[in-house]
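Tokens for chain A. Residues wanted.
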């Protein structure tokens, strides 16, 4: 009987539990569509990501919505712009005290989106300058759509997030959560690392 195989199965390694991550965004359309596409692109085996749009558009409203979300998550993030918000510094301070990480893009989320296309902007720009840049690019390559180019186009090059990350790190080598970087800058690479690796 020594040649007979054992019917006992080798014990399987228990499947690691995915980290549950909450991302609260400021924008009604662009950020939600971006993260939906990014999650599909990354297909992380380490995280399960939930995207929420709390009421309001200022940093404190987004932070309050994140704090009030009753789900159980390993980590919570808020994605906000600098724009003209008066309560940004308070939101950054309160988030740190409550264990929430704020991902700041200076001056607006479109900076991060533009870095998926090329290395522009690479110096200080106003909000209206960024809007003009988006409008001009969309004439040749419609990466944004809708009224005032405020929605992500279905052909947005989401796969270029790696190039965008390189450009963002070049602009702000000392990027961190809960910190306002220089204009232009974005801490999005840090959040992408969290989505990918937990």
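Reply:
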């Amino acid at each position: 009987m020594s040649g007979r195989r054992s019917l006992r199965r080798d014990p399987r390694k228990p499947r690691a539990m995915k980290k549950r991550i909450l991302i609260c965004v400021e924008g009604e359309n662009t950020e939600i569509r971006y993260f939906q596409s990014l999650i599909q692109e990354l297909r992380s085996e380490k995280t399960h990501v939930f995207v929420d749009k709390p009421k309001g558009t200022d940093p404190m409203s987004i932070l309050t919505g994140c704090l009030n979300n009753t789900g159980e998550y390993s980590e919570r993030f808020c994605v906000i712009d600098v724009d003209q918000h008066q309560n940004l510094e308070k939101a950054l301070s309160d988030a740190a005290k409550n264990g929430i990480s704020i991902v700041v893009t200076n001056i607006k989320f479109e900076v991060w989106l533009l870095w998926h296309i090329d290395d522009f902007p690479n110096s200080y720009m106003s909000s209206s300058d960024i809007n003009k840049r988006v409008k001009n690019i969309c004439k040749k390559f419609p990466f944004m759509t809708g009224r005032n180019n405020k929605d992500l186009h279905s052909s947005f090059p989401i796969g270029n997030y790696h190039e965008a990350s390189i450009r963002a790190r070049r602009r702000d080598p000392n990027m961190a959560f809960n910190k306002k970087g220089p204009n232009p800058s974005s801490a999005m690479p840090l959040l992408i690392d969290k989505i990918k690796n937990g």
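Residues 46 and 162 are 19 Å apart (CA to CA). The radius of gyration is 20 Å.
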